[in-house]
Request: fold
Amino acid sequence: MQHPTLFDFVMSHHHETTSPLAAIFFSFGVPPKWAIDRVRSLKRSSTLTGSPSQSSVPIIFQAQTVEQAEQAVESGAADILVAQGMESGGHGMPNLPTAQLVSCLLASKLVKSESIPVLSAGGVMTGTDIASHLVLGASGVVMGTRFCLSTESVYPELSKQRMLKASGMDTIRSTGTLRASSCQRLSSECSIVPWCWLYVQ
Reply:
C-alpha cells in the first residue's frame, strides 16, 4: 500500500460495516511507515460487543523471503508472519517451498527473539497438510485456493470442476502482473492467463 488515500478509502468502507476489525493483512513488501503508524493508531474491536478495546489492531505480514520477514519485524509491521511458499496459488514469488521457508523463519534469531507466530501458506489443502505444518513448528496455516471450491465461492461451476480434476502436476508458474511476482495457475492453452482469472470467463 503506497497511497494514504487508498488506505483511508478501505477504512471508510470498513466503518460502514458491522463486522469488527480483527487484523490488517499486508503482503508484497514492507508497508511504508505512515501505513504502519495508521494501523497502530486503530483500536481492535471486541468480537462480542463491536466496541473498541484498549489493544491495537494486529498486523499480519505475508513474506515470500526471510529478508522480507525480518524487515517487517524490524519495522514493527509484523505481529504475525505468514510464510508464503512457492506452492501458493495466485500471486507470489518462486523462491522457497513453503516448508523450507517456514523452517527458515522459525530459525531466524530476530523472529525468535520477538516470539512472533509463523503461519504456513502454500500447498495446504487437507487435514494432513495442516498437521504436517503444525509438526514442523508453524502456529497455524493460511488457506486460499481450497476455498475456491466452497459453496460460498463465486467461481463458476466449470472452473471448480477443472480445479477438482487437476493434480499438483497440472499447475505452472508464469509471470504475474505485479512486479517481481509470478502467478500459480492451471496449465492450459491460454499460457498468459493466470488460473485465478478463470472465474471471469
The longest strand covers residues 52-56. The two ends are 29 Å apart (CA to CA).
